Amino acid sequence: MWGGSKLSSSGSRILEGLRLGFQRTQADSSRLTTSEVYPKNQLSWIPQIKPWVFSENRIMWFKSYSMTFACLNWMKIFRLPWTRPYSTSQTTVDASEVKTFLALAHKWWDEQGVYAPLHSMNDLRVPFIRDNLLRTVADHQPGKPLSGMKILDVGCGGGLLTEPLGRLGASVVGIDPVDKNIKTAQHHKSFDPVLDKRIEYRTCSLEEIVKDTVETFDAVVASEVVEHVIDLETFIQCCFQVLKPEGSLFITTINKTQLSYALGIVFSEQIAGIVPKGTHTWEKFVSPEKLESILESNGLSVQTVVGMLYNPFSGYWHWSENTSLNYAAHALKSSLQEHPAPAEFALKGETEELQAEASTNTGVQEELKK
Question: What is the model's pTM?
């Protein structure tokens, strides 16, 4: 198509259509009101192009893929006037992530399979949760140190972390948006009558249960979860709401560094096959600094951040001062603040203070006259 020194007639028509479409779109965009271009509650940018641009000039019907990609790249580089901030996110659950875990739902309890690193991670994360929770209680029962505590395990998968917490005596609610994950977890816990009484599983997202579980849980656990959600701020806000005052939030996740991309995605997924391809998206990784900022701004005080390193050859995890790959965080929900006094009582108090001050000034003036 582009072999000669001159464009073909079809190529000329395409370019002319692009030129006319751009001119007409600019003219229309200049007439748009502010409310049309920037409607309320829009947070991120997506292109909003008049439908007639596609129908009259048939830009989307190009047969030349190279031409299509060139136009798309051009639009991306020169963010045109008709683009505006917008977000349709109403859930923290990413549908593409659900598909990934749906395909692996039957492999959760294979200790030598794709979830082997998570089985091994229990050697660190279970004591991390247990020991930090025990600091908040005066005494505990031997053998059941978490007895009396209610814990929410968000993104519980097949129950790899839920069951150990239940064995420590806690009453645990495990939630996951993938129905097959929950069925796998329910089937596995049914073999242990004790766990069957202590653990409850639900197929749902965190935001779906917030209204019914406000200030219900002593602890919320989100282990290897936040790197899969699409709205981290909303997720943390939901965690805050379901926690009791001074409740604990536990997070394990992956730092957003060049090293985490090289080892966590390129090596682990594409070379060694330790993790199935497509499990992680580097853009969703979050640094400890950013996570702490989000937690603190939502009423959660960070207590501990510690690095975690996985040895793919031995299959074991160990703690580290280096947080450039994986890390664990513990945060506490701030206690309830005193409610401000009603306006009428505040006004009354201010009036009494003014009267007292006035009487004092009067007494001083009388003394001076004498």
Answer: 0.65
